[in-house]
Design goal:
Layout (H helix, E strand, L loop, with lengths): L8 H7 L13 H12 L10 E6 L2 H18 L2 H10 L3 H15 L5 E8 L12 H17 L3 E2 L9 H8 L5 E10 L33
Antiparallel strand pairs: 1-2, 2-4, 3-4
Helix pairs in contact: 2-6, 3-5, 4-5
The structure holds flavin mononucleotide.
């Protein structure tokens, strides 16, 4: 039923940005599983697949997380950031902050929270560090697959300030890190191309610093 989505890959890539304003409408469990399945298609070192996705729809759990997310936001939203929103809210930075503030204020109302948990290393050199490089390809796949179903996502990390309490409530064991919280739902806003630097500006040819003002002939 939900398997057949015709969606151009580049359309998905070029219109997947943080969608922080979400409708409270529920998301079908089939779709939640589909986007998680797409996430699991992502690569990981030695194909360890060191991930577990915790899906939360319960209002009381969302409220618990929201309270902590908001507290972490209050710390992140420094006086300087507040000034920026007040005086230049239409600048790129101001837009991000306004949108992030909206999410912080409304995160309890999102229909689904997906907590992306990743195993921690066990070897002596890296013991206890999360295998986060192993999970971000999966997380981006999740966001792209959600886009194909018309579902908005944003990758967030502010909950980590209260990871201990949140993990205790969710039952996340100590050998996993709660890497990202992805609010998932139908967006209120419109899809648009993310604001990014031009590719040529961030590309060096053969050596660091060798930028081209146009695509080289060959
Ligand atoms: C690792 C990571 C952590 C992030 N944490 C947060 C967060 O806690 N709250 C939030 O609102 N956005 C968060 N973001 C979203 C970024 O702010 C956003 O992707 C960036 O501003 C670019 O905007 P765009 O996704 O709309 O293109 C995070 C993104 C990444 C990749």
């Amino acid at each position: 039923m939900y398997g057949q989505v015709e969606f151009d890959l580049f359309d998905a890539i070029y219109t997947t940005r943080s969608m922080r304003r979400l409708k409270p409408d529920p998301v079908a469990p089939e779709l939640i599983v589909k986007v998680i399945e797409a996430a699991t298609m992502g690569p990981s070192g030695s194909n360890r697949q060191p991930w577990i996705f915790v899906v939360v729809r319960e209002a009381s759990t969302k409220a618990f997380v929201a309270e902590r997310y908001r507290k972490a936001w209050e710390v992140y939203f420094t006086p300087r950031a507040r000034e920026l929103v007040a005086n230049a809210s239409d600048s790129p930075q101001g837009r991000i902050l306004r949108s992030a503030r909206y999410l912080a204020e409304h995160i309890s109302d999102v229909p689904v929270m997906i907590f992306c948990c990743v195993k921690k290393y066990k070897d002596p050199a890296r013991r206890g560090q999360p295998m986060q490089n192993a999970m971000f390809p999966a997380i981006q796949n999740l966001c792209l697959a959600a886009r194909a179903y018309g579902l908005g996502t944003s990758i967030t990390g502010l909950h980590q300030a209260y990871a201990k309490e949140i993990d205790e409530l969710l039952g996340v064991p100590a050998e996993y890190a709660n890497l990202a919280l992805i609010p998932l739902g139908y967006p209120k806003g419109r899809w648009a191309r993310p604001e990014r630097k031009p590719a040529l500006q961030v590309t060096c040819w053969e050596k660091w610093g060798n930028r081209a003002s146009a695509i080289p002939e060959s």
